[in-house]
Amino acid sequence: MFNMMDMFGKVKEFQARLKDAQASLNTITESGESGAGMVRVTVNGLKQVVRLTIDPDLIRPDDREMLQDLVVAATNKALENVEPKIKDHLQKATEGLLPNIPGFDLGNLMS
Questions:
Q1: Of 47, 57, 35, nearest to 82 (Cα)?
Q2: Which of 1, 8, 70, 95 could form a disulfide with 35 if both were Cys (CB 3.0 to 4.6 A apart)?
């Protein structure tokens, strides 16, 4: 039989674990590169850029526009790469807490 109090307890535990998992997203990092590795960007699970490395050969005033494009491309790749890690981290933190209820999708909480 379905016990509503047990369900509320699990929801409360789910919320606590999700909050803890979200707080630790800064420990997840992923990188992206462009220009055959000449520009490399590292982001964390909070989608913040934490490191930018540019090959010294690219730092020339006449190539400024190309460098800007490479930084944008590397940043976007890093953000794309970190997304699955974020989702996996949050899912693992809350795994097994709530039953699989048809029509009750918590997927939007994981992104």
A1: 47
A2: 70
Q: Where are the alpha helices (DSSP H) in the chain?
A: 4-23, 64-94
Which residues are 29's β-sheet partners?
Answer: 44
Residue 93 resides in a domain: yes
The verdict on pTM exceeding 0.70 is: no
**Which residue in this structure is represented by tokens 């606590």?**
16
CATH number at residue 64: 3.30.1310.10
* Domain range enclosing 31: 26-98
- Model confidence at 106: pLDDT above 70: no
Measured distance CA(54)–CA(60) in Å, rounded: 11
Whether residue 94 contacts residue 17, with contact meaning beta carbons closer than 8 Å, is answered with: yes
Distance, CA of 67 to CA of 70 (rounded, Å): 5
> Any bridge partners for residue 34, and if so which?
39
